[in-house]
Amino acid sequence: MPLSEIGRQAPPGEPGAAPRATCRVPVVVEAPQHSGLTGPLDYLGEQAWPPGTLVRVPLGKRVVTGVVWSAPAGGDDEVAFDLGRLKPLTEVLTGLPPLPAAWRQLVAFAATYYQRSLGEMALMVLPPELRQLDAEQWARRLKRLDKAVAGSSAELAALAAHAGDETVAAGAVGPEALPTLTAQQADALTELATPGPKPYLLWGSTGSGKTEVYLRQAQRTLDAGRQVLMMVPEINLTPQLEARVARRFAGRQIVSLHSGLTPAQRLRNWLMAHYGHADIVLGTRLSVFTPLPRLGLIVVDEEHDPSYKQQDGARYSARDLAVYRAHLEKVPVILGSATPSLESWFNALPPAEGGTGRYVRLAMPARVGDGIMPTVRVLDQSKAPKGVAGREPPPLARELLEAITQRVERGEQSLVLLNRRGYAPVLHCSDCGWKSGCPHCSAWRVFHKVDRSLRCHHCGFTERVPRACPDCGNTDIAPVGRGTERLEEQLAEVLPGARVGRIDADVTRHKGALEAQLASVHAGEVDVLVGTQMVAKGHDFRRITLVAAVNPDAALFASDFRAAERQFALLLQAAGRAGRDAGVAGHSEMWVQTWHPTHALYQALRRYDYADFARQQLKEREMAGLPPYASLAMLRAEGKTQEAAQAFLVEAVQAVQHLADELGGITLYPAVPTPIQRVANVERAQLMIESRQRVALQRLLGAAQPLWLALAPQHRRSGLIRWAVDVDPLSI
Ligand code: ADP
Ligand code: ZN
Ligand code: ZN
User: Fold this and answer.
1) What band does 393 get if pLDDT is binned at 50, 70 and 90?
2) CA–CA distance, 456 with 461 (Å, rounded to integer)
3) In this predicted structure, what is the pLDDT of residue 580?
4) Which end of the chain, N or C, is less packed with Cβ atoms under 10 Å?
């Protein structure tokens, strides 16, 4: 049936409800959080439109899109209701099947859990186009989509055809030969053959064949006539996975969903999923909300990745919502990682080992095909010769430089990681002490040599580099420290003849630039690749036999309690980029250039002992009362002054202190400036709320929300700009 015909038929009424000429229709609309509107608004409809129907309704002077949220209760309550007071619905977007009950439940849960209004949550997770079209535009759009859907099989064949090394003849997408499973893959799949209600944590080394396990389980799901939702942390990783999935499931309908699609593509793919046409949906965090009428499996790859947490607006965790959704829809969920988040790890540890045992752990420690992880070499910087007085030390220690030179001579590739882009983090005048601060932020502006600019990485404020010191006129202002741009330049100098390339957010800003740069690495046109964490993730490099982290120590002493966990994951993932081809695995190396070689993190990394690292971390977290042993929420405020931001937080705490005392086990910490206190001339402060019990925290926040909403307006007058709650914050 063409899309434009689906749902044309009269919508089914609520079972048992007698048809009525007019009735109350509760509709959820997008309303700003501070409006205090949390639930649906009532409108007048010609009939009881089923919950999940999309409608257009008047709101103030505008007409906005909304979702019919529930059926009128019926009975006496309904009769007593004064229908005459209600405004009628403007129009109904017929042609779109109602959003399913499971979708509404997920949205309602997310709104409650993350302390946002229902309307904001519900509308935010719909494709942007859907929120803007009126009924007429909608009908036209559906007509066009019919053609797009018909053409999608051809599109997929084309995708599979240029999908990578295993060439598939254009137009003829045949089934690929399946690899023989490793013993560990086979064991994992045996467990997954009869999935129980618990989430699965697939803990497998990089290159252990986790993706193969996802694909086999996906095959079972498709065979059972169900849909698969596969999530990856970053847009950059979707084309690669999409190609692999397309090769495996020739003839199946595969769509992707992420913010890099055009609005039209996103709407089309979302509709394919919602109509049940799409068999597999691949997407980033926003895809967790995709309505899937035949959902049968959820996969969250690299489940530890911070990108699964939305960092503004409704700060939801797609990983956690995926677990909730799987529970709600009674389908299995697989969380996969070589370095699971400590939360997931804790849940997958049996109670006898101090965990909760809520998840089932499937372990795959071995790499496929006798692949071994590179040897870790921890290089003690404190023993290295110091730079000549007044000059900066060389970027790489002598031993490391030699090891890279050997690779260049052998025609192998090296990856040098530095998590700081730009040329130098700051410019400095040695005469008067001037530094390139940002006038709008409490941060330095970074020197970018390529266009001789000083750029603030927080507010974006950019200026040409001054010829002379703005304070004293000294013409000798110099870069201090080193970013990827400078490292690239320095490596080219000390490695004459080597082809040095770079991948970071600056070089890949333009569409297609990342793909082009990756292709040239794959084609062997680069000997030494300098990059930020962007390259450490997921990319399947074949010829890299050396990975070096040249400045990894900052994370050891960061105030953020998750910094070490993130750094361990990053380094291990980076190590996984080396020696992926069995032929070169034997002499692959991971170098760590550090001032703290005996630090427990590096010692665990040396042995690739995630379990041991997790044990240390969990012990520290338990003693400090931090997640996963406690639940956190962060109340953040922004103001014209730091005082204004903090004043709101102080009163916000006072307003709920008695509640916290009643509930027990809750600590409200003092308000403090955020680590970067001022961004774009806005002062920021925050306050941490810690609770031994998740439920108690939820109760407190639920009760606090209306109090804080009531408190905010008076503070606005004295300089509060905005405030928000971040539940389960990632960074503190
Ligand atoms: P992970 O997702 O754990 O990093 P992948 O699933 O990407 O690992 O597997 C790594 C490589 O090994 C891929 O090139 C994949 O095609 C290959 N592979 C996976 N399983 C097998 C197997 N059982 N036999 C041979 N090769 C395999
Ligand atoms: Zn000066
Ligand atoms: Zn700035």
Assistant:
1) confident
2) 5
3) 65
4) N
Please give the Cα distance from 652 to 445 (Å, whole number). Answer: 34
Which numbered atom of ligand 1 lies nearest the CA of 212?
A: 6
CATH topology of domain 631-727: Alpha-Beta Plaits (3.30.70)
Say which CATH architecture domain 151-368 belongs to: 3-Layer(aba) Sandwich (3.40)
**Ligand 1 center–CA 213 separation, angstroms:** 9
Q: Which residues of 141-154 are buried (b: 16+ CB within 10 A; e: fewer)?
A: bbeebeebbeebee
Confidence (pLDDT) at 57: 95
What is the distance between the alpha carbons of residues 572 and 605, in angstroms, rounded to a whole number? 7
Q: Is the separation of the CB atoms in 218 and 271 below 8 Å?
A: no
Ion ligand 3: residues, CB < 5 A: 438, 440-441, 456, 458-459, 461
Q: Which residue is closest in CA terms to ligand 1's atom 23?
A: 181
Nearest ligand to the CA of 457 is: 3
Contacts for 103 with CB less than 8 Å, ≥ 6 apart? 52, 289, 291
Q: How confident is the model at residue 81 (pLDDT cuts 50, 70, 90)?
A: low
Listed by start position, the domains of the chain span 3-100+111-133, 151-368, 371-422+482-622, 425-480, 631-727
pLDDT at 579 over 90: no
Lining ligand 1 with CB less than 6 A are 179-182, 185, 204, 206-212, 368-369
Give Cβ neighbours of residue 641 (< 8 Å, ≥ 6 apart).
683, 719
- How high is the pLDDT of residue 1? 42
Pairing of strands 333-337, 200-204: parallel
Give the closest ligand to the alpha carbon of residue 678: 3
**9 — pLDDT class (breaks 50, 70, 90):** very low
**Cα(491) to centroid(ligand 2), Å:** 30
Of 386 and 157, more confident: 386
Those residues with Cβ within 8 angstroms of residue 81's Cβ, 6 or more apart along the chain or in another chain: 24
The pLDDT > 70 percentage for the chain reads 89
Mutation to probe ligand 1, out of 201, 212, 572 (largest number of atoms < 8 A from CB): 212
Residue closest via CA to ligand 1's atom 25 equals 179
Q: Give pLDDT tens digits for 600-616.
A: 999 999 999 999 999 99
Q: Do domains 151-368 and 371-422+482-622 have the same CATH topology?
A: yes
Please determine, for residue 528, whether its predicted confidence score (pLDDT) is greater than 90.
yes
Least confident of 4-13, 211-220, 272-281: 4-13
Q: What's the half-sphere exposure (Cβ side, CA atoms, 13 Å) at 455? A: 14
Has residue 13 got a pLDDT over 60?
no
Query: Tell me: the pLDDT tens digits for 652-665?
Result: 999 999 999 999 99
Q: How far is the CA of 484 from the centre of ligand 2 (A)?
A: 26
The CATH architecture to which 371-422+482-622 belongs is 3-Layer(aba) Sandwich (3.40)
- Identify which of 474, 436, 440 has the alpha carbon closest to the alpha carbon of residue 452: 436
> DSSP string of 400-435?
HHHHHHHHHHHT-EEEEE-S--SSBSEEEETTT--B
**CB 285, CB 320: distance < 8 Å:** no
Ligand nearest to the CA of 573: 1
Question: What is the average pLDDT score of the chain?
Answer: 88
How many angstroms separate the CA atoms of 283 and 537, rounded? 16
Residues 6+ apart with CB under 8 A from 278: 227, 253, 254, 255, 269, 272
Residue 166 has pLDDT above 60, yes or no: no
**Residue 454 Cα to ligand 3 middle (Å):** 10
Q: What is the pLDDT of residues 38-67, one digit of tens each?
A: 789 999 998 889 999 999 999 988 999 999
Task: Say yes or no to pLDDT of 594 above 60.
Answer: yes
